[in-house]
Design a protein that fits this description.
Strand order of the largest sheet: 1-2-3-5-4
Protein name: Translation initiation factor 1A
InterPro entries: NA-bd_OB-fold (IPR012340), RNA-binding_domain_S1_IF1 (IPR006196), TIF_eIF-1A (IPR001253), TIF_eIF-1A_CS (IPR018104)
Family: Belongs to the eIF-1A family.
GO molecular function: RNA binding; translation initiation factor activity
Pfam families: eIF-1a (PF01176)
CATH topology: OB fold (Dihydrolipoamide Acetyltransferase, E2P)
CATH architecture: Beta Barrel
Length: 94
């Protein structure tokens, strides 16, 4: 998965996904995120992630904004700290 330079092949956003930073935990499997496109959205943690992936404030996540309600989104992926640092180094997020 990683080469000699320590770089991992990270999951990158699909066409309908954007990077986001978790800014606030709202409860009821919802979080407030600030997306890379500049919008604040309420993101939902899907059932398949709820017990397996722990999401905290300041985590870097991938979200998929809803087609019919742009202020809401679903979280599709969470990066751990090393992966988030790598995304920053490579200039994908700031």
């Amino acid at each position: 998965m990683s080469d000699s330079s320590g770089r991992n092949n990270l999951r990158m956003p699909d066409d309908d996904e954007v990077f986001a930073t978790v800014t606030n935990m709202l409860g009821a499997n919802r979080v407030k995120v600030r997306c890379a496109d500049g919008k604040e959205r309420t993101a939902r943690i899907p059932g398949k992630m709820q017990k397996r992936v722990w999401i905290r404030e300041d985590d870097i996540v991938l979200v998929e904004p809803w087609d019919w309600q742009d202020e809401k989104a679903d979280i599709t992926w969470r990066y751990d700290k090393q992966q988030a640092d790598q995304l920053r180094r490579e200039g994908h997020i700031n």
